[in-house]
Amino acid sequence: MQTQILLTSFQTWLPHQHSNSSDDLLGAIESQLFPNFSLRFLRQLPVDIEKSSRRAIAQIDRTHPNAILCCGMAETRNTLTVESTAWRGNKSLQTTLSLDSIVANLSATEISHDAGKFVCEGLYYEVLNHIQHKQLPISCLFIHVPLLTPHNFSMISADFCQLLDRVAKLRF
After folding, report:
1. Residue pLDDT, tens place only, 124-154
2. How many CB atoms lie within 10 A of CB 151?
3. Which domains does the chain have, with CATH numbers?
4. Cα angle vertex 63, ends 57, 64, to 5°?
């Protein structure tokens, strides 16, 4: 059975934003074929923790993916950043993925321990909490995407595709 990965992205939330780089990246890879895994997309989630979490969890329960990569825009970052931890108040949850091996030798990707204290972190926490509470055999990772430019797009998209491939090769 082929590994199935669910990818999520957000809408914009500020007036100056013409698009959300996380959604732009997913749009760019949506038509690509990946022989070793299949992708499902849940794009343009609302920038609201409760609404986006409810939609993502419903999709998880409906489709039973092997892995989930939630994506959000980080305007002030220059690389893809994979988030180790999600916080809600004084409680934290961590991804079960080995981030060091997932990002090894990627040129435009780093590990972050600060998911941003916004809707990105809220969604990440709620999805990790759902997986843990239901004891689902699903891996989850949050990836922040920098603003995409003609200069960085090929590096960012290449690293993102490598991340997808590495997550898909994990034993589920």
Report:
1. 999 999 999 999 999 999 999 999 999 999 9
2. 8
3. 3-168 (3.40.630.20)
4. 80
